[in-house]
Amino acid sequence: MKTQRLGRGLDALLGEMDEAYENEGSQRDMVLEIALKDIRPNPFQPRKSFDETALAELAESIKEDGLIQPIVVTEDIDGYVLIAGERRYRASKLAKLKEIRAIVLNSDEQKMRQFALIENIQREELNSIELADAYSELIKLHDLTHDELATMLHKSRTHITNSLRLLQLSVKTQKALLEKKISAGHAKVLVGLDDKEQQLIVNSIIGQKLSVREVEALTKSMKVTNKPLISKVQEVSFNFNSIKNRLQSFGLKSKTSKKSLTIEFSCEEEIEDFLSHLRD
Fold first, then answer.
1. What is the pLDDT of residues 182-195, one digit of tens each?
2. 20 to 30 A from 48, CA-CA: which of 31, 134, 245, 257?
3. Catalytic residue among 86, 119, 130, 148
4. Does residue 86 carry a catalytic annotation?
């Protein structure tokens, strides 16, 4: 019974938003021109990052053609609170507009939170971590199972579960994913590793350009042998001491790192002298 009841409740919530947009054409009094300065963002907005280039493009489009779809707000004591349409709101501010077309709905805090979650999920505008947070929030709000949420959002249960598993990652690994230093495919493989192992693998993915398949093989091997990962992803290092000493005997300066040796020459005569030693 819980699944059906909550399903109808969530459907009604989505329908309320759709109905507001559909009625815009026939009930013009629903749409107001509101000063942008009187609107504040939805405090429950799950989306934390916005593509600046995409916002600039949307701002130009709004300048040229106007705002095609109004934003949705609810009235507050000192103005209005944004419910849906934060990209349009931000782009309109970027376009230096003074006012924006808005549909005004009656809404409490719980509805505001749900509207923000659902709109972003439906528009597929969230990154993988924000999406996982949104799913987690809906599950808490409605006391849902993964299957129930999947049915309501028309997603697969596997997708919901795999997304939520990303929240088990360390803060640093989540940050690497948000900054696109690793892919969602990489991140899913790292779930279950401790923080130090995750960081080690993340560094290796970035430094050695490891593919998802290579990371899968690495973690699988670690689980089978029960050996620490550090022995498998350690960077190659060479001992250049003997070569460096030999170069010094020739009067040449050199620098070394883990995998490289650099010889410094001060003039062409030193280069010719060095080459003569190689020919001997």
1. 888 898 889 888 88
2. 31
3. 86
4. yes
